[in-house]
Amino acid sequence: MMRNIVEIFELEEDSPHEDVEMGEDDEEPVVDLEDQRRRTERLRGVLPALAQLWWSDSDQIDLAAEKLGDGSRDPKWRIPLGDSGVLAFFLDLLKSHILKYSLKIHVLRVIGNSCADTDENRARVVNSSYLPSIILQLKDTSLLPFAIPVLYNICIDYEPAQQQASNSFLTEELIEVMSSPAFNDNRAFLGYTCKLLDLMIAQSSEPELAPENTAIVLLKIAADRESPTDMDDFIALTNTAVAYLQHEKFQKALIAQGAVDTTLTVLVDSYTRFDSHPSIGEPDQDDAKALSQMRSNLNQVLSDVSALPEFKEVYPVVSPLTMSLRRWLLSPQLQLQVCACIMLGNLARSDAACEEFVHTSRVHIPLISVLSEATDSQLLHAVIGFLKNLALPLKNKEALGAAGLIDVMPRLWALDTLQQIQFSSISLARQLTIGTFENVRKVCQRLSDDPDSPASTRTYLSLLIALFERTDVAPIKMEISRLITSVCRVFTSYTGRSPEEMERSRIKFFEMHPDVGRPLSFMVSQDKWPVVRSEGWFVFALMARFPEGAQCISDLMHDVAVFQPLVEMLTGKKIIDYPPSSSSPSSSPPPPPIASPSGSGTGSTSSTINFEGRSPESVQPNAQAAEMARIDRENALVLVSELLKNRGKDMAVMRRTLFEDLLKGGTEIMLSYKEAIPLQGKVLPKEKRARAGLNLQEVAAESIIELS
């Protein structure tokens, strides 16, 4: 019987010398169906002999399995082994019987070699549910050199096997094995183990079935300095851990089991244990690229982990972990700096935490230092993001400005090739100016005290206005406009200084920035961001309460892009374009009287609202469209009322008349909306709503002639 088994493989002149462990590298063999049939028949003929050897408990079964295992190394025998029933015979033995160690090894060899790059045999394993019995062999650490490659050969490139392996808790068995000290003797199989786990986490069932400490075990092996891994295994372990850490279950376990420190250790070790600067030569460059990608992936995971609520509960602002991260801010290694900014920035989610960061930890000092020199866009983005969080509490704004944060930002505003950094840095500057007089004064102070220097007539705000003029990026233009309105808001509503000092500051501001109107006009004339437009009308109303501000707003009204939305808000009608009269204003007949809403000439309406001295109202970010429209209209009425109060006596007759009628018409519309409120929230149809009786064509024509 043994002679028959041995003679089978004499069909081959040359035989491979090693068991097949990586089917993915094999070339597709040329299939000779007649040769395949002949091999199948020969193998089928030895099945009775194999059965007799097994049931007679002969030691020869070990030798027979060994010969078949040797023969199965040849790809030409793989299909015949399955078609003949030999593979199923050994699979049944492994599943249904307790085998001697020597026989089990050769049985695993037959299975693993037969399934290498052979979906037909993989299907036999999966369809008859033999995979769980193979997974159980992992419990014997002495069988790991055989069981792991067999599982890899079955699962690689074969989705049904991967799904069944996941459902059969392969990950749990692998993690248990890897957690055992005995696994140190099998480190050579780390690569296969990680590849198997990569296949498992791709299955939909895996996040639920895998042990929650899966990523932790992998990271601990990567961070083990007593038995350090080589670079390839280090990268494989970390990348596999990262794949599991994409899921919240494993992120929370990382925090709960105190393994965030281990993760940070892995990131540091990627620099200290391996050369991050490739030498000349292709392999070194590939290694450096793989390390860089691994660090980037790990940083993303740490970002997600630190954003979880559980993270701030375990790691407060002042803790050993945050102390390490603060040291990383000035590290020469880019990814350590980025990681520190992101993780610390995610802790800065409340006013209390931000204030502790600034006034206790003084974390803003190294951040400003990095911002003054960094050129990498990823690092700049991370630093600015952290500082924007820190700048939210009012208590922090002045401290950040005093530490020199505003002084380092013009360098970033000049980075025209990094528009996202431009935008973020302008947004940070805007945040610093909100309600903080000292920072506003810093933004508006002269760049030089030397009267002979051109910089003496320019400010940081001048640099932003120049950027507004040269850029065509709408979000950047909008953020500059919002910063200017923030500055104007402080100059018109700040109460921390005397009225006399505020007046001097306002006058100086408008003198130093005669071109401030263009960004302000852009803010209220655009319709892409309604909340921002509302913010503009609100600040316009604030500015109009003071003579110097009213002068600026009055000048802006020469721009039809500003004047038209104001008219539309207050009358519900658009200005109709048409050519102005060819006659000169001096020879034109006087305009006809404008009918008042009440029909009583220029008399007042039956119901009036006095807007003099009334404070404008700010629109909340989450306001509904109807509420936003109401507030915009009332702010516009305050604006017109204040313009008439502060500039009316200096206006030409036609212009003053126009603003007076806008005020009347806007008041009438506002009253009509108030009257509609009791109707269970229903608004009257357009044709039944009260409208201002403005003859817009005539008034606008005369006004355009006058303003031209």
From TrEMBL:
Q: Which SUPFAM superfamilies match?
A: ARM repeat
Q: Where on the tree of life does the source sit, at the highest rank?
A: Eukaryota
UniProt-annotated stretches for the region Disordered? 578-620
- Show the ranges annotated as biased composition (Low complexity): 596-608
A Gene Ontology molecular function term for this protein is:
guanyl-nucleotide exchange factor activity
Can you name this protein? ARM repeat-containing protein
